[in-house]
Hints:
The structure holds two protein chains of two kinds.
Chain A: E1 8-9, H1 33-43, E2 48-53, H2 55-68, E3 76-80, H3 83-88, H4 91-103, E4 108-113, H5 115-119, H6 124-131, E5 138-143, H7 153-162, E6 173-180, H8 193-200, E7 204-208, H9 214-219, E8 223-228, H10 234-244, E9 248-250, H11 257-271, H12 280-297, E10 301-304, H13 312-321, E11 325-330, H14 338-347, E12 353-355, H15 360-370, E13 374-376, E14 388-389, H16 400-415
Parallel strand pairs in A: 2-3, 2-4, 4-5, 6-7, 6-8, 8-9, 10-11, 10-13, 11-12, 13-14
Antiparallel strand pairs in A: 1-12
Helix pairs in contact in A: 1-2, 1-7, 7-10, 12-16, 13-14
Chain B: E1 2-4, H1 12-20, E2 26-31, H2 34-46, E3 54-57, H3 62-67, H4 71-84, E4 88-93, H5 95-100, H6 104-111, E5 120-122, H7 132-146, E6 158-164, H8 171-186, E7 189-195, H9 200-204, E8 211-214, H10 220-230, E9 234-236, H11 242-256, H12 262-276, H13 280-289, E10 295-300, H14 302-315, E11 319-325, H15 340-349, E12 354-358, H16 359-364, E13 372-374, H17 391-413
Parallel strand pairs in B: 2-3, 2-4, 4-5, 6-7, 6-8, 8-9, 10-11, 10-12, 12-13
Amino acid sequence: MIELKHLKRLSAVKSNAGIKFLTPAAFPGNHCPMHTALALSSNIKGMSTLLIGTAECGNYSRSIIEKNKPDDHTLHWMYVLDSNEVVFGCRKGVMQAVKEMEAAGARAIMLISTCVPEVIGEDMEGIIRELQPETEARLNYVQMPHFKCNSYPSGFYKTLESFVEMMEPSKKRPDVVNILGRSKEEDHIPMPELLQALEARNMTLRYLAPKSDITDFVSAPDGALNLVLSPYMNPLAKRMEKRFGVPFVSVHEVYDVDGIDHLYHDIAAKLGIQWGDGFQKSRKAAAHSEAEAKEIVKGLRFVTTHRNTLMTLPLAHYLLKLGMDPLLLHMEEFYPDDKRWSKLLLEQGQNPYLCHMVNEPSDARMLEELSPDVSFGEIPGGNGKIPFVPHLDELYGQAGYERTELLLKRLISALK
Amino acid sequence: MGLHRFRPPLSGRMGTLRTLGTIRGAALIEYGCMGHMLYSRVFLNQAGVAEGCRLYSTHIDETDISMGDTKRLNRTIAEIVEKDKPEIIFFLPSSVPTVIGTDLNAICKELQPEYPDIPLLPFGAGGFHVHGYEGVEEALLLLAKELPKEREKTSHPTFNIIGSCADMFRFQADAEEMVRILKGAFNMDPVCVMTSHTSASQVMDMGGAHINIVVRREGEKAAKYLEKRFDTPYVIGRPYGIEGTLSWIINISNTLGVEADRDFVNQEANGARNHLRPAMPVLNHMIRSHPDEATISLGGHADIVKGILEYGHKELSLYRGDCWCDSPDMGDEDIPYFSEEEWSKTVRNRKKGIFMGSGEALKWAGKGLELQISNPDVRWRLSPYDPPFVGFHGAIHLAGLWLNALLEQEEEEE
């Protein structure tokens, strides 16, 4: 019998700290959140960055910048702590660096602090508070120590959440909907039907994602509604609701047809529009797949792996509704919203093991011993005997009935 | 280290990792946040290291930091021993354990009895004042001290190369060229090419070699140690140019007390000269009539800059431009250390002439990457078959690069 005592069950996990590795030797492991914070910030048009950390962070960060190739005359510099600053702090040096960046033309600077400044307790908030009054460039900061998480998603959502500091209150425009988590240039992900329907009703969609312009974020509080398409965007949506009164709806968390009905109803009510019967075709297809799946999957035990890019607990909640049992769930990140989903699962008597997978061959051996009926996400390095739902990354950024239908078709196909 | 616009100098930890990362049959565990190792692996992949050390990370979380809990290491070692059965396991602290003072030496000592057949070897160079090349030096020395076993000298002549490591640009091709020449000139085979083309067991056999060929100054401490322990003499230097390579061969011959194969050496040297001969009138004309363009500026590892400069200046009569090294510990009057501010200013101000430097600097300056002689790199180097810079083949390669760079400048002017 496989030993999972080194893992914690859902009921015992309240944050990333509770999610243990399925097998101990990371090979290769995950990117740190600095990677995503920098990739995101440097992709925002007009935003410069100052990375604060070690020579390692400085060197690796250049690969990210070289890949992104920002061509908007922004600056992406690094402040590397020396041995003296590791003991006595780097406040003075960082402040001087910001002044030099401003003198060189930076107009908005995201300060990204990494592991060592966080271990020594450098007060980034204090630095910003002291600097901002004497600096014309708009300053912002994020703290990205890798030891506070297992993987990179916090680099996305904490950086995005920090953008609220750049926003300014403005008069509401009832025809503007902010789309959080999709870029205008994202041609490789099909445009959700919901967004097409909004456009057809003459709503102006403002896409907020990497590659958006900084001015789009600044003016976002004028939106009538925030539609959230990505788990990375929920914290920002919450902050915007609290600070600027912009309501939000998370469409990426809901899979069941009834739930999507309610969701779309809610959106229409908030915007004062009518949908008509525009979604009937996709709704019918999703409902048909849902009924078919319920017949097939009842009682099947499932796992999710690191190849699942969908938010794990909302997905598990939906699969539970279909009659499946969660056995072991890989969590790339324990998001702030996961506490709510955790409660829902526990209330229904489900308390699966949670884990983080960092070593494909070793993890595959463990999963094969566990022998689930199906895996959501591929099992690289495995023997191929466990049926799996592949290419879940293609569902990222999609939503609504059509996403549910696609997911269920793949599930049914995997089991056939 | 302060503010940087370009890649900052490597830390000692990075230098150590790039030294150990190529050793086959070994496993390396980095104790600390796993992002470090992931990026190091990307570097090694891009540098063309296809087979090497198995690279693992333990990761570390807040509880480990606040409680000083290192049990992750124990579990990781157990897993790797069971799965990989490595000949040796290297340990390296990443930055956070360095700050909190995790004592990897003590941990390894404590755990060693559990693994009597697999040495657990901790490496240092974790301090925040330690530069990358110091990490290389320390790693080479520690490998030389801890791994080699008592060996009789091999029955036929053999050598070790010390200091061919993945942190250097074009390290594989340069090592291959030196091995080729040593085989041809002395009929010697390598025991260990430390560390770019070696396994852990080959490092253990190093004591059997007849001579150590040290190809960068960071290797001298290791060579001195091996000289003392195994009575193995060493020569230090990199063979650049035709005359430079001949001197290098003579130096090895004198140290070994064995005459080089005259036929091979003459054939190689004359072959290189004959190869260059048709181009020499063009090259000489360019040098005479375009002195500003016929100036070489070089930036990189001090030993490489010095070697290439000597070839270009002394053998081919190119003019010396601005030459600098990339380590504050290696700068001297001849080849000073330039900070990024100094080298970027120098490159910007020098409008004419040939500049050879890092991929990053060349890209920034808008120049072709074929003139790259040092890291940081900006491209993948999948092929180990690129032409070398050292030896007879390297002499032809460099001369060809310079000739074309001169002609390109002339074309641009026209």
